Each structure stands twice: as structure tokens, then as C-alpha cells.
Amino acid sequence: MSRLIWLIVNPHSGGGRGMRRLPDAERALTALGLEHRTHCTTSLEHGRELAQEGADEGALVVTLSGDGLIGAVAAVLADRDDALLGILPGGRGNDLARTLGIPLDDVAAACAVLRDGVARPLDLGRVGDRSFVGIASLGFDSDANRIANEAPSWLGRGVYAYGALRALAAWHPARFDLEIDGAPPRSVTGYSVGTANNSAYGGGMYAAPHAKLDDGLLDVVAVRSMPKRRFLTQLLPRVFKGTHVELPEVEEARARSVRISADRPFVVYADGDPIGATPVVISVRPHALRVMAPAA
Predict the structure, then answer these.
(1) Which residue numbers delimit the DAGKc domain (predicted)?
(2) How do beta strands 84-89 and 60-65 pair?
């Protein structure tokens, strides 16, 4: 890889983790012989603008951030025929990097993927005119995400468990109406509905263990009603291995597009950020761009 590295850093990602890793990343890129320019974002919109500038320069656009900025940058690059994205983990969750096999805690090794890795296709999920790389979900997840985003940064990855526990205490079942690929609507009463491009979210929670990044489909995972104690002691611990889908209250389906409404309003979250609201249509854009990943 001889292209200029256009490094986009989110200073606030992961409680400042991206900025703390930046000096090591810059040293590693220099040691690898990779020319680079560093740009810090002030917002997701600014990140999109920086990605456009980097692509116009013919550079390899690389994020040092969490999945939220990755999704914003990927949406810009997807409009280009030569779209190629590089990822350096710099957030709290880093779920896309985790799934791709990019080293999470070895900055130099992650940088080496930019030189020695391979380009592989990546689908993008879409909510309206917004794109996401991971899992778009609503219901219980809406409350848990909101609480986690408001939590103090010193909790680190613990914000996800904190958000889930706080949300569970106040949760009341909701009814979700799903229309999958134009089929007649069906109702699910319970906790949440997720539409997954990636298998993981929330820092290693495998909410959709069978989802693939490049199969042109979204995995739809719905969690039906169960007692809160069962949700806490049986379902949540299993999510970290993806075995929760074996429980009778969990349903899976695959779709190119799904329309979701609910009996009360919910904000839809994806890649850790609000991306829409019910009623919502969530779809997939197959092989929207390519992403650098470790060679097999």
C-alpha cells in the first residue's frame, strides 16, 4: 500500500481513546514507510467532509475512532468507484474492527494492516439517508443506548452493561410490527428488534452471531417477552457468545429491507448513535465499498 494515508481522528471517541492512541499510530505509520496526514474532527458532519477531501486527493481514508465515525465516513466513500476504507480502533466498542480481525490493542499491528492487508467487500446498512456498518436496533436497545451515551466516560466499556441494567429496571414490553421484504406484517411483543450487518455491537456483544459483513443481507433478531430475571440471568450473559439466539424467545430472519413500527415511539440507534425513529425502513446496500482487513 503506497497511497497517502488520510487519517481522520475523533478526539472524543471512547472517552478520548483515539487521541491517546494517535502518537503511537503516527509513529507506527512512519516506521512502516506510510506517508500520512492527520485530521481531527469536530463532528460527524465534519468527519464526512474530511473523508470527501481525502477521497478527492486519492488517499486511503483511515479512521482512528469508534464505529460511529466509521459509518459516517463509509457512507461518503460508498459513492465512489474506488472506495477503500482503513480502520484503526479508537473507540470503546470497536466492533467492526473486532469482526474484521484488526488488532484492537496493538496500534502498530493495526497500522500494519493498512500496508500488508487485503481489501474485502463491505455491505452498508441504511436508515433513510444515513448509513451504518454494525447493528441498527430499537426498543429496549433504544433506552440502553441513550443511557450509555449519557454515562460518564470513566466507565469505559462498562457503559454498555450500565446502560442495559438501568434500561431493564424501567422497561415495559412493546409491540413491534415487522414487514420483511414486503411480506405481510407480523407482530412481536417483547424487548427489541435489531437489524444487523455486523454480528457484534456494544463492545463484543454478539447480538446477531450469524450476520455477515458481505452477504448482501441484514440479519433481523427479535427478542420476545420474558421475565426480567430471565432476561438478566439467561439472555444477557449469552449475548457475549451469541448463544442467546438458541433461546425460544429469540427469533432470527434475513432481509434486504424491513419496515418496523411500534406501539410507542422509539429512537433507532446504530453504531452507538441515534440514526432514525419509528416507523422506520432499514435496508442494505450490498458491497457498497471495500475495507482493509488482515490477510488470511
Answers:
(1) 1-131
(2) parallel
State the chain's mean pLDDT as an integer: 93
Whole-structure pTM value: 0.91
What does the pLDDT look like over 110-123, one tens digit per residue? 999 999 999 999 99
Q: How far apart are CA 150 and CA 194, in angstroms?
A: 21
pLDDT band at 28 (very low <50, low <70, confident <90, very high): very high
Are 61 and 54 in contact by the 8 Å Cβ rule? The answer is: yes
Domains parsed from the chain with CATH numbers: 5-116 (3.40.50.10330), 132-287 (2.60.200.40)
CA distance 11 to 30: 21
From 129, 131, 285, select the one nearest 216 (Cα to Cα).
285
Beta-strand pair 36-40/5-9: parallel
Helix 67-77 / helix 44-56 crossing angle, nearest 10 deg: 40
Which set of grid coordinates corresponds to residue 23?
A: 502518537
Residue 23 Cα to chain centre, angstroms? 25
Which amino acid does the sequence have at 271?
D
**Cα(251)–Cα(290) distance, integer angstroms:** 30
**Is the bond leading into 279 cis (omega within 30 degrees of zero)?**
yes
Helix-helix angle 107-116:17-31, to 10 degrees: 50
Nearest to 199 by CA among 148, 133, 128, 268: 133
